[in-house]
Each structure stands twice: as structure tokens, then as C-alpha cells.
Amino acid sequence: MGRLRVSLINKHQQATLIGLLKNKVRMKQVEDESISSLLSELGLVFFLGQSVESNLVILLGMAKKSGELKSDKSVRELMTMYFSRTMGNIKKSVSELININEDLEEILKVALDSRNWLAHSFYREYAPSAFDENYRNKAKVVLNKAKEIFERTNELIIVEIELQSAKCGFSQDKLNQMRTDGMQNYIACEKAPNELWDESLNKTSWQNYEI
Prior knowledge:
Distance between the termini: 65 Å
Helix content: over 70%
Number of helices: 7
Oligomer: single chain
Shape: elongated
Radius of gyration: 26 Å
């Protein structure tokens, strides 16, 4: 009887231990999934923030080609030059060249602040969100707000790009084709057959650094 009781206790303890281990594994999986979800959202917002900068550079290149003092450089050459500037400097140059609408002017300021905060302050303010579920939810709310700002900014910039490209003599079909060619060749890491692309933008010295 004593042995049977001990055996039952051992089995109960084993079952409890297995249950605890399974629960820990499930909790770890949930935590990993939550962190992955946060990092996925963070990556998307960074991507959109950079697309705002890229679209601004395209707009600036188009504005330089379509303005009264037309540049003799190609749009591609202009873009290569402008990509070395800060987003704030690019925004200032765009405002000096064309009369952008008030909605875009206003949201560009907000987008610039959002992008700078994301690049320089997100980690400092929200690093604990990787380890705490409640804080993680707060971080996602902030990231979603930045996402909305970048998406709206891109929508308004694209309208201006289309206006300036028309002044450059590019049809809508031509502009769409240039975008498609540029993206396809970007993915292939090859030089695109259009003037919006410069392969040097895809090759930087840090990529050759050996650790």
C-alpha cells in the first residue's frame, strides 16, 4: 500500500512537472510570437519611413527637371546626389522648388519628426516592450500611428510626383513602367534600364565589411 501511494505521488509529481514544462513552452512560444509581431511591425514602419524619403528624392529630381531652371543632369544623377542629404534638407529643397499643397507641407513636418523619433528614440523609450506584454501593446499603438502618417505622406507625395513627371514629359504609363523596372531590377540587384535607377545606391562600403 505504501509503495502504491509513493508511486501515485511520483506519478502526480511527474504529471505536474510535465504540465509546468508544457506551460512554460507555450508561454515561451506566445512570448516569442509577440516579440516577433512587434519586430515585424517595427520593420514595416521603418520601411515606410524610408519610402517617404525615397519618394521625396524622386519628387526633388522631377522638380529639378521640370522647373524654370531645368537641370542638365538626368533624374537618376540628381537622385544619386540627393540621397546623400538628410531628409530635412531634401524637404527644404522640395519646398523651395515647387508650391506643394498645405496638406503635404504640414504632414511632411510630422513625418520628418516621426522618422527621426523612430530612428533615434524608439529603442530608448520602448526597449522594455520586448519583455513586457503591456508595454509591447503601447509600443504597437505608437508604431501604428507612425505607419498611418507615413502612408498618408506617401499618398500625397505620389500625387506631386505625377504632376512633376507630366511636366517632364513622362506619361502615366511611362512613369508606371519606370517604377516597375526600377523595382524589378532592384530586387535582382542589377542596374535598371531606366534613368531613375543607379546601381551605386545598392552598393555601399559597409556591406563589404568582414566581422
